[in-house]
């Protein structure tokens, strides 16, 4: 009879240790997956977004840009949220469209466009 109660106590202790080990084996892969997503997806995207916001804040009159929609032109005016983009000249008059600053995808080198 003494052996049965000792064996039961040993079985319960082993089950508790195995439960903790099983829990760690379930949590560790989730942490590793999150770390991989962070370093390969989330962090680079945040870096690109920060660089884009700095580029949008640095826009000035006379810059030649291309928008996310593929429209290229020269900036004629800059407001807090919008820019005036000259895209063409008709009969010597500039054709200017208003766009949001954040729609600019790239600033081109000076002299690229012949408007």
TrEMBL record:
* Keyword field contains Protein transport: yes
* GO-annotated biological processes: protein transport
Q: Where in the cell is it found?
A: Cell membrane
Protein origin, superkingdom: Bacteria
Annotated transmembrane regions? 23-42
Main localization of the protein described in the UniProt heading: membrane
Spell out the GO cellular component terms annotated for this protein, sorted alphabetically and separated by semicolons.
plasma membrane
Q: How does it sit in the membrane?
A: Single-pass membrane protein
The entry's keywords: Cell membrane, Membrane, Protein transport, Translocation, Transmembrane, Transmembrane helix, Transport
Instruction: Specify whether Membrane is a keyword of the entry.
Output: yes
Read off the InterPro entries from this record.
Preprotein_translocase_YajC
SMART domains, per database record: YajC
Q: Which family does it belong to?
A: Belongs to the YajC family.
Q: Which NCBIfam families match?
A: yajC
Q: What is the official name of this protein in its record?
A: Sec translocon accessory complex subunit YajC
Q: Which organism is it from?
A: Sutterella wadsworthensis 2_1_59BFAA
């Amino acid at each position: 009879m003494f052996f049965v109660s000792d064996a039961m106590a040993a079985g319960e202790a082993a089950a508790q240790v195995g439960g903790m080990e099983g829990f760690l084996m379930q949590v560790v892969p989730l942490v590793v997956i999150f770390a991989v997503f962070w370093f390969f997806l989330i962090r680079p995207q945040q870096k690109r977004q920060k660089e884009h916001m700095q580029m949008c804040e640095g826009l000035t009159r006379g810059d030649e840009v291309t928008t996310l929609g593929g429209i290229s032109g020269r900036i004629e005016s800059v407001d807090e949220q919008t820019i005036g983009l000259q895209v063409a000249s008709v009969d010597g008059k500039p054709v200017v469209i208003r766009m949001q600053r954040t729609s600019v995808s790239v600033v081109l080198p000076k002299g690229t466009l012949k408007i």
